[in-house]
Amino acid sequence: MNIIGRMRKLLAAFLLCFASAAAAQLVVEVTGAGAQRIPISIAPFAGEGALAQSISSVVRADLERSGLFRMIEAPAANPPLTESSSVNYAEWRARQADALVQGSVAARPDGRLEVRFKLFDTVKSADLSGVAYTMTRAQARATAHRIADYVYEKLTGEKGVFSTRIAYVVKRGNRYELQIADADGAGEETALASFEPIVSPSWSPDGRRLAYVSFENKKPVVYVHTLADGKRQVAANFKGSNSAPAWSPDGSRLAVSLSREGGSQIFMVNPDGSNVRRITQSGGIDTEPVFSPDGQTLYFTSDRGGSPQIYRMPAGGGEAQRVTFEGSYNVSPRISPNGRVLAYISRNAGKFQVATLDLASRQTQVITDSDKDESPSFAPNGRMILLATVNGGRGVLSAVSADGRIKQRLSISAGDVREPSWGPYTK
Amino acid sequence: MRAIWIAVLGAVLTTGLVACSSTPTDEQAPAAVEDRSGAQGKPEPSSGPIAKVDVTGRGISGPDPAVKTGVLAQRSIFYDLDQYDVKDQYRQLVEAHARYLRDNPGRKMLIQGNTDERGGREYNISLGQKRSEGVKRMMLLLGAKEDQIESVSLGEEKPRSEGHDEQAWAQNRRSDILYQGEY
């Protein structure tokens, strides 16, 4: 069996196992991981000591945090290993590493740096190829995330999300900040600071803009914010409340909840605020619209049946069908990138938890054990769901694998963190 | 799918990109190192430049003495759990404000509906909206005009009490009345 087959088998075994292994690193705490993780060694990259940020340690942290890999320490080597050092496969097998990464960082004549690495299958004694990147010093973390994505995809067959970004809101005292960070929580930058609440950030499909709800005008108004230049456009500021923006997959429209005609109803609007069109026509509450990945269907929360439940309807308008039936409070629908799984917040005996519904089999599963969960958000590869919850009286972010088995907690000191949204793949 | 991906990668590797052939391997021919140092391979920093917008300086409310005395100084209507209609005990308060609007057609009002912290933030915006619209409807019946009142919701975002028990929640399930100049 080749390494991919072997890793897939391991992955399958991992998916069948309940586990409770715990590890802690930086701000991300992995509170649950698979018992069967792919053992891999990431050797220190030759020459990386010249960088402020070691490439190999970021790659290690990324892979370990995914819950799918177990790090095998590489013994000190002199001279340090590079991508072209010969590999003694038998030795690595004896250390029980199924895979190995070796690499180097070298200065280029133009002042930039070249990072090269190779991935090896030690079980099959095979060189799985590698990549060379040219980068500036400031790009060390970004490059490390790219390397982790490469390794992750090679060994699991699934695209990695280490190079993606997340958005969330931090509340410190009466100050609210909409922040953007790498998927590992590092490198955070503030996109918007305000003395009034900010909720419901939603990434444009190209990852360049965020739609969100800001209360800076003493009422909820939907803005579209371009991250690179901080330019903001009002997408919806009608009489009444304007909230719950969700982008269409092609980025051309936003579905929003507006009370301009009385009650909360779903409308479609262009990101510049033009072309407003009402989509739902119920006497009750219709809110939290979200598009299916193909853009054909809208999932949303409605109390039309007497309690808040999730419904779906054609994105252009039409008859709505009820989707959730268990329990008396199901809100905040999100659709997995492959369109097959609905994640939402379900109230069970007073606890608000993340549940998933397999749309084909109709099987539901509560996947968290916290009790104040909000705002679930799928990673672009669908494996993890980011959410807000409360821990020790403080708002924290948490991530759980879509099958509920891997759990991570991401906390920021001195502040309440809430309203997370996982961004799309970056080109 | 995977086969295609590998095929594509293979094609990329063989189309003139710098090959790294110096890796001796004992059992299998080495694969090349793909050179992404060209424009298309430049690692875009995952954290692109983010421009900061600061609106913390906004939101100064001006005083409005005319509506700060007597019953008009009472501005909050509280609700029982899962209730959205104005309770009898607040009828006088709503009537007084409706009368004021009727007698002062140039005056305008914002009604902000609020909920306690339990449940989803967006759904709570809709529930708070239900509360403020209930107050507005009552005022319209009592002679206020549509263009004088805007009913909005702050959901669970602006609690009056930061506690996490029923006493705090009861303070937070409310509608607040603000006159123009106060918001």
Low-confidence stretches of chain B: 1-30, 37-46, 59-63
Quick check: average pLDDT of chain B?
79
CATH topology of the largest domain in chain A: Neuraminidase
In CATH, what is the homologous superfamily of the largest domain in chain A?
TolB, C-terminal domain
Overall average pLDDT of chain A: 91
Helix content of chain B: 25-40%
CATH class type of the largest domain in chain B: Alpha Beta
Strand order of the largest sheet of chain A: 1-2-30-29-28-27
Distance between the termini of chain A: 33 Å
Largest sheet of chain B: 4 strands, mixed
How many helical stretches of chain A? 4
Largest interface: A-B, 91 and 64 residues
Supply Rg of chain A: 23 Å
- For the secondary structure, the number of strands of chain B is 6
Number of helices of chain B: 4
Helix and strand element order of chain B: HEEEHEHEHE
* Main pleated-sheet profile of chain A: 6 strands, antiparallel
Using the 3D structure, state the CATH architecture of the largest domain in chain B.
Answer: 2-Layer Sandwich
Write up this protein.
The complex is a heterodimer of chains A (427) and B (183). Chain A folds into 2 domains: 3-22 and 35-156, Rossmann fold, CATH 3.40.50; 165-422, 6 Propeller (Neuraminidase). By secondary structure, chain A is mainly beta. Residues 10-26 of chain A have low confidence and may be disordered. Chain A is 11% helix and 43% strand. In chain A, strand 5 and strand 6 (113-121) form a beta hairpin. In chain A, the strands form 7 sheets. A 6-stranded antiparallel beta sheet of chain A has the order 1-2-30-29-28-27, with no helix packed on it. A 5-stranded mixed beta sheet of chain A has the order 4-3-5-6-7. In chain A, strands 10-9-8-31 form a 4-stranded antiparallel beta sheet, with no helix packed on it. Chain A has helices at residues 3-16, 55-65, 89-94, 140-156, and strands at 23-25, 28-32, 38-42, 69-71, 99-107, 113-121, 126-135, 165-172, 175-182, 189-194, 198-203, 209-214, 221-226, 232-236, 242-247, 254-258, 265-269, 277-278, 286-291, 297-302, 309-314, 321-322, 330-335, 341-348, 351-358, 364-366, 374-378, 384-391, 394-401, 407-410, 416-422. Chain A is elongated, with a radius of gyration of 23 Å. Chain B is of the alpha+beta class. Chain B has 2 domains: 2-41, no CATH class; 65-179, 60s Ribosomal Protein L30, Chain: A (2-Layer Sandwich), CATH 3.30.1330. Chain B is built from 4 helices and 6 strands. Chain B has helices at 2-14, 91-103, 121-141, 166-172, and strands at residues 33-35, 53-54, 76-78, 109-114, 149-155, 174-179. In chain B, strands 3-6-4-5 form a 4-stranded mixed beta sheet. In chain B, strand 4, helix 3 and strand 5 form a beta-alpha-beta unit. Chains A and B meet through strand 6, strand 7, helix 4, strand 9 and strand 10 of A and helix 1, strand 1, strand 2, helix 3 and strand 5 of B.
